[in-house]
Design brief:
Elements lengths: L6 H8 L2 H14 L4 H12 L6 H7 L9 H21 L3 H17 L3 H18 L5 H15 L4 H36 L7 H17 L5 H17 L3 H17 L1 H6 L1 H17 L3 H13 L12 H19 L3 H18 L5 H17 L3 H11 L9 H17 L3 H18 L4 H14 L4 H18 L4 H4 L4 H8 L1
């Protein structure tokens, strides 16, 4: 049996309160005759947490359209899109351009050429002011229709309209080139290429140099691609200072041109987040604190209203940054203070939080409890990550979780369990990759420590453990991003 479509459900769930309110008004004006039926169907679907068509049919059993529900859903889906089109075309500059080109076409067809030309003058100004060259072909096509209807064109008029489009198409092609080069770099970043390989680093260097030779583009949208590519390149090369400088320029571009934020709202949020990550690497904690407050204030700003799940996105970005800042500074008491609010937010939004953020939160919470010597609570949060359904996800985080799990049991004095736990972790990690030097040392010294009673000998073992770890720290630096082994052992010594 064909599975019922959930497209309408997801569309309705993505609407803001004002968009839902507008749809009700739109339905009253435009859905003639059966308006109440479609509003009822809208409300029933909107009330569901998870789409369930059988449940929906039971609720609508007395309605006139329950027997042709699939048809009703398709019609309602189209009407919701129509209402969204009407709602957003008032404010979006691209929609205004398309709308007034259409006005010009209607006026041209009615032989009202003077009025049609007046509409196109507005369009040309918007295209010029906002560098929206994508709409030049449509504008020029309409302009030429009007010119042909007016009179025989002079050579000057022919050259003028030809050169205007030629210049626009050149700029459009150039913007396209910026886009391609930018996404070549960004694509390599997402693919997690090894920048240590000479061919990869040479390829990245070549693309970045080509961008620099081309220089800063004129079109602000192309400038986004330019700055983002160079920021990503510097980040990939380990140059956090270079990355933060390019991301700062990109933020300035957004904030000095508010209409660009309206065009690329989610890109602005991503840029601000990247800028804060760069500052985290540079230990610019004061900048970070201000940036986190700035991120949290975004949902209150009108430019960002209507972004689906924005509250959850801000939750993911700000709490992960804030916890990592406190951990990096060793301020585990401050980290502990924000856990109750974070845990409350996780409980509220668990189904909507991206899985990698959810598991990362579980780990960070466990680590903060561990550093505050609340080992039982730490263990409880680690158990959430170690559920079978997550075992094949986020390999690096899972390995870090298992290591902290062993250390937490060690701190709790669960020595009888540790032999079997170490053996289990060895088996799990062997399926993922070869045992690391860190793990070999961890297994070795935990086994020795649980079999050593005398405090002086234990202290000597902790000292030896710390010395051996120091020798491999540079080689396995990423493991220290999850757990500061040296700090833990120095406290023991």
């Amino acid at each position: 049996m064909k599975r019922p479509s959930e497209e309408l459900f997801f569309l309705i769930k993505s609407l803001t309160k004002s968009e839902k309110r507008y749809f009700k008004q739109y339905a009253h004006r435009h859905i003639i005759g059966e308006q109440n039926n479609y509003v009822e169907l809208f409300d029933r679907i909107e009330s569901q947490d998870k789409y369930n068509e059988q449940e929906l049919k039971v609720e609508l059993k007395d309605s006139s359209y329950v027997d042709y529900l699939a048809v009703a859903k398709r019609y309602l889906y189209q009407q919701v899109l129509e209402s969204l089109h009407n709602y957003h075309q008032v404010h979006a500059i691209e929609e205004k351009i398309k709308k007034h080109i259409h006005f010009a076409k209607i006026l041209w067809q009615k032989k009202l050429l003077k009025s049609a030309t007046k509409e196109l003058k507005k369009v040309k100004k918007w295209i010029d002011d906002h560098f929206l060259w994508d709409y030049l072909p449509e504008y020029t096509t309409m302009q030429r229709r009007i010119l042909r209807s007016q009179k025989q064109l002079t050579p000057i008029e022919i050259d003028k309209t030809y050169l205007f489009l030629e210049k626009g198409l050149f700029n459009l092609a150039r913007s396209n080139d910026y886009w391609r080069k930018s996404h070549e770099i960004i694509g390599m970043h997402y693919a997690k290429v090894n920048v240590a390989e000479s061919t990869t680093s040479k390829q990245l260097e070549q693309i970045s140099q080509e961008l620099k030779v081309m220089g800063l583009p004129t079109q602000p949208i192309a400038q986004i691609d330019y700055y983002k590519a160079l920021a990503t390149y510097r980040f990939m090369m380990g140059d956090a200072q270079g990355a933060v400088e390019y991301n700062q320029k990109l933020l300035n571009l957004f904030e000095e041109n508010s209409y660009i934020i309206n065009l690329e709202r989610e890109q602005y949020i991503a840029t601000l987040n990247n800028y804060l990550i760069d500052n985290h690497l540079l230990k610019n904690y004061e900048v970070l604190e201000k940036g986190i407050l700035k991120l949290r204030a975004l949902p209150k700003q009108k430019e960002f209203r209507g972004i689906p799940d924005l509250e959850v996105k801000i939750l993911e970005l700000t709490y992960s940054l804030q916890l990592n800042v406190y951990i990096a500074q060793g301020e585990f008491d401050k980290a502990l203070e924000i856990l109750p609010l974070l845990q409350k937010s996780i409980a509220k939004h668990k189904k909507r939080i991206a899985l990698h953020y959810l598991l990362t939160f579980y780990y960070l919470i466990a680590y903060v409890y561990f550093r505050n010597k609340n080992y039982e609570m730490s263990l409880g949060w680690l158990e959430k990550i170690r559920q079978p359904r997550y075992k094949n996800l986020l390999e690096e985080l899972m390995i870090a979780t298992n290591r902290l799990y062993l250390i937490t049991h060690f701190e709790l004095g669960n020595y009888l369990l540790l032999d079997s736990l170490i053996a289990a972790v060895k088996r799990v990690h062997a399926k993922l990759r070869s045992p690391s030097k860190l793990e070999q040392l961890l297994f070795k010294y935990i086994k020795k420590l649980i079999n050593t009673v005398e405090s002086k000998k234990q202290k000597a073992l902790y000292t030896a453990f710390a010395k051996d770890l120091l020798a491999i720290k540079q080689e396995e630096q990423r493991a220290w991003n999850y757990f500061d082994y040296n700090q833990w052992l120095m406290e023991k010594v």
